[in-house]
Amino acid sequence: MCVKHIVENLKNNGHSNKDLIKPMVWNLVWSYTEVEYEENRRKLQLYSTSLHDVVMKENPKSWCLTFYKLGSCFEDVDNNATESYNSTITKA
Q1: CB atoms closer than 10 angstroms to residue 50
Q2: Helices 34-47 & 49-56, crossing angle to 10 degrees?
Q3: How far apart are CA 50 and CA 2, in angstroms?
């Protein structure tokens, strides 16, 4: 999800004060812990229940740092371009 587009859509859906809603949504995005996320979510809800409901429909678990897994998501990580290059220069 592109948060910039979420904020723009909020503005287009009648939440006109972009200068206030943009930092509120970005504070939610940059929340590193669940406690911080809940605090920022509550601030958004206190500001506007309708705004909060619209933002929550956008599935924050897909764009908030709180829900990102740290580290590699795969057991095997390689760079095929580097492998191809190394194979070519080794032959030369």
Answers
A1: 11
A2: 130
A3: 20
Name the nearest CA neighbour of 37 among 62, 66, 70.
66
Residue 92 amino acid letter: A
- The type of residue at 10 is L
Six-digit token string for 8: 């723009």
What is this structure's pTM?
0.68
Q: Exposed e or buried b for every residue in 6-21, given b needs 16+ CB within 10 A?
A: bbeebeeeebeeeeeb
- Give the mean pLDDT of the chain: 82
Burial of 58 from C-beta contacts in 10 A (0-12 / 13-18 / 19+): middle
